[in-house]
Specification:
The chain has helices spanning 13-22, 34-42, 54-57, 69-80, 100-114, 128-136, 152-155, 165-181, 193-202, 223-226, 248-260; strands at residues 26-30, 47-50, 87-91, 118-122, 140-146, 185-189, 207-210, 218-221. It has one domain: Phosphoenolpyruvate-binding domains (TIM Barrel). It has an 8-stranded parallel beta barrel with strand order 1-2-3-4-5-6-7-8, surrounded by 7 helices. It is α/β, with parallel strands linked by helices.
Length: 272
Amino acid sequence: MYIPRPLEDKVTIPQLKKLKQQGEKFTCLTAYDYSFATVMEDCGVEVVLVGDSLGMVIQGHDTTIPVTLENIAYHGKAVAAGLNNAMLMLDMPFGSLNSPQQALDNASQLLKQTQAQVVKLEGGEAQLKTVETMARFGIASCAHLGLQPQMVNKMGGYRVQGKAKSAAEQMISTARSLEQAGTDMLLLECVPATLAAEITATLEIPVIGIGAGVDVDGQILVLHDILNVTAGKKPKFSKNFMQGQSSIQGAISRYVQEVKRGQFPDKTHTFS
């Protein structure tokens, strides 16, 4: 039986950096409404992401590409209503980052509408000027490397990234450049655990992983995956935390504790 431990203090970027420095793990989950956001905060989830994954798990699309800024704003406001201390992060959807100015305008509006603290943006070197611009105007960002679902048509599917030596070296270089440009966090998706560990050790900013091994600073999963309600094939990097639990609160609390104890992800949920 896992007992929920509510957050006692407001989660901030400096606090997440301090956790990294102390070697303490933190947890993130996606949410799309008030009720689940409330449960997550009560269970001690530090970062709640309104992800464009809503296009798949809420709207039933095959990809995240159809998600709009209006969708993110709508769900962002609902989630914000359920949070007091957890950090709220919003995905910048496909087509909202076509230029630094467009990205700045869109991110500004999202933050005003939702009271979120951070925006997450996919893209590597192409987003360096956008990250720099956002930092200059006081917008906190989380860059996203590795598998980038908004690039699924270009990548030809959902595949592990950074396996080749040249690709790994490029990802490390890009991660450093993004940090220098002013991004506040980095999310790595579907990359070999050894590469994720190297990037995490290289950067001073917190690194969040999904399918990136246990040595990153924080973990994130899609809510529907950990509750085992996602339709179709389940991703390798996720886990059914409902198994053996009698409630959703129990499943989320179990996820939090396994991450903080370094028990999740294990090798069965990791790429090599």
